[in-house]
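subagent[fold] <- orchestrator: predict structure for attached chain, return tokens only, no commentary.
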Amino acid sequence: MNEAIRWCRGETRLGTVRLAARGDAIVGLWFEGQKHDVLPDETWRETPNDPLLREAFGQLRDYLAGKRDGFDFAIAPEGTPFQRSVWREIAKVPAGRTASYGDLARRLRRPSSVRAVGAAVGRNPLSVVVPCHRIVGSDGSLTGYAGGLDRKRALLALERVELDASRDGIAGKAGSRP
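subagent[fold] -> orchestrator:
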């Protein structure tokens, strides 16, 4: 992990994002100013013309425009073993579906670790790509999203997940849990 992190910034319909790569994998995608935002430091190299970063940014823009359902670049999120296990489970939740924090804890065979799962979800360094916007409260209500609840609503709407305005939560078939 001695290789420098390359990064760039770009505009999307949901705001400015920062993409970061190490080697041949994307390691971060953050909305500028989001909770737990990781800021470049003197060890990072800004490389706006990096082919991997340009490809990832293009895929993100296409995704946000409804032109693609997912991403096909390599990812390598950096975190603790527990965090990475949570992020792997999040990645299994398909577009148009949701799962609760409790669902994730049960899938990890740690049903009493709901709060730890929630903390790991909040620290997801790959917003949108590892779709933590698909994680909701046990009653289907929208809960925190590091990028902001407006972005979470927009991402779920893009995936055609019906929002129940009376609960500010998820309803209907698309919102059923896998």
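orchestrator: received. Logging for downstream: DSSP finds five helices and eight strands in the chain. The first strand starts at residue 6 and ends at 12.
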